[in-house]
Amino acid sequence: MIQIDFFDKDIVSTLLPIKTMQPEGVFFLTDKRMTGSREIRQVQEAIRDILPETEVEFRPVNIDDLENIYGELKTLIEAVGSEIGCIDLTGGTELMTIAGFRAASEYGILPIYVDVRREHVINALTGEQLADCRHVTLDECLTAVGAKRLTASHDLPEPEEYERITSMAELLIDHVEAWQELYQHLANSVNGQNASMTARIVKGFGKYTNQVLNLCDAFSTYGFWTQVEDQAYRFNSLKYKRYMTNFGIWLEMYVYIKALRVFDGAELGVVIDWNEADRVDTEDNEIDVLVMRRSIPIFISCKMRKPVSADLYEVGYLAERLGGERARALLATSFPVKELGTSPKRMYNRMKKLKVGLIEASSFREMPASDVFNQAVQMTD
Predict the structure, then answer these.
(1) Banded model confidence at residue 342, pLDDT cuts 50, 70, 90
(2) Percentage of the chain modeled with pLDDT above 70
(3) Are the C-beta atoms of 373 and 359 separated by less than 8 Å?
(4) Residue 47 and residue 16 in contact, taking contact as beta carbons nearer than 8 Å
(5) What is the pTM of this model?
(6) d(C-alpha 192, C-alpha 238), whole Å
(7) CA distance 7 to 308
């Protein structure tokens, strides 16, 4: 069976109908301006991973010209004939949908549509349910958007470390200012591949001194470093040194560990290579935590500091650009945003307006993780 699809940057609309229907071949009609683009190559790779035997071909069209789209469909249908089993109307522009429905009606081809919310493929003419959706996995999502994991400070924690990491993270979240002081001292004195594995805490930290020393003791208690002499500590591994010289990684790991128990898949620290040609990653293409729930990608930005408006626009932009209209954007923070949101101009109300879900880190100690994430996702509806 051959399937006709309309290419869409929305990865759910692009991959879900193909993964569910599992055609032997797919013809994508796509914007002629995207011919040979990175986006197309990434989707080809994702489909190849999902259905290795399925052949995929892209046909360029003028997406602003209804007759051009229909003309290409007509040419394709008459060339391929009865092997075409369906035309998928899930993705693409409005003109593509109109042309696809017109072609399906005139040539007697089944028009299908994916109801993502109900997780069914339906007959667009009758509303009949044809199949249950086969969910897009996190790995397939990452391939389709051209993502890769960060390295170094984003070494994945092992399951046996989860309890120690979450306990330490909660202490750091409760004492952010003291952690800021200690982090800056550690980053300045021991950071770098060839720097010492021993840290000396030899200067005062003002009003945070006692809290900083308590954090130092906690890092020892939870096994991240070992005190070797008075005010001197040796990191217990290079990975732990990376963790302890990265201010925000603790909230990212905390949210990631909580998400593992709730979502179909979760990944910590991924980047998008906007410019594949020179392999240069810029600061605005990092996704702290990416999770999947029934084919829906959810982008989570983690801010150990007080969030600002730019943080909302950044995570919202990443979600829309990479996941499309079905993707969700959440922001996790150590700060009590709701308490600051008494005015329509304040952060919480702005988040609701922009449909960016809020996760306050303290909420995980007040309710089950599933409820925390569900409430945040509900803000994006």
Answers:
(1) low
(2) 92
(3) yes
(4) no
(5) 0.86
(6) 11
(7) 35
